[in-house]
Amino acid sequence: MSELDLQSKLIGKDVLKDSELYQEIHLVKQNNEQLIIELNTQYHTKEKILRYLEEITGKAVDSSVDISLPFYSDFGKHITFGKNIFINQNVTFVDLGGIVIEDEVLIGPGATLITVNHLLNPENRRGLRVAPICIKKNAWIGANATILPGITVGENSVVAASATVTKNVPDNVIVAGVPAKQISNIE
Questions:
Q1: Is the peptide bond before 109 cis (omega within 30 degrees of 0)?
Q2: Of 26, 44, 78, 118, which is the active-site residue?
Q3: In angstroms, rounded to a whole number, what is the distance separating the alpha carbons of residues 104 and 186?
Q4: Residue 26 catalytic?
Q5: Is 4's pLDDT higher than 60?
Q6: Among residues 152, 43, 157, 24, which one has the least CA distance to residue 96?
Q7: For 70-109, what is each residue's pLDDT tens digit?
Q8: CA-to-CA distance for 101 and 82, rounded, in angstroms?
Q9: Is the pLDDT assigned to residue 2 strictly greater than 60?
Q10: What is the arrangement of strands in the sheet containing 79-81, beginning at the earlier edge strand?
Q11: Are residues 59 and 73 in contact, defined by beta-carbon separation less than 8 angstroms?
Q12: What is the model's pTM?
């Protein structure tokens, strides 16, 4: 099954721990973990980092993408990078639900983008529900910010350091706090 087929099977559905789909997810995750360990445990040139990212995502990664190591991803195959992106150290992508990073995006150190939630029902708590994240063109995600499942951060917007984004962020605004709230417009 292709990664796109897998992603379409996940969106809006509960994935229970004992299901075939849950097992399939964990096989891909296990393979990705080996690549992430290799990426993060020794020095690599920028070109080698990009080759690793292409293997991790299964997609072409533009040479203008710049990622400082270490970089973390649990699943890997559901990440899409645009152009002229900078991702600082210790950023984590929990990408099973899909993460799209559009052109010109900046992501500060320690930021976390999470597309997966566990189920609330205690009997099925080990199950999963996913929702995609999209970071629009020229957005800036500050250091240690957390973006939760299903969120879109609008074009040119800024998520302040240590903010937790629980709702979509419109274009051209600054959000801050926990939960993140709009504090300013960008002219």
A1: no
A2: 118
A3: 16
A4: no
A5: no
A6: 24
A7: 999 999 999 999 999 999 999 999 999 999 999 999 999 9
A8: 6
A9: no
A10: 79-81, 99-101, 133-135, 152-153
A11: no
A12: 0.95
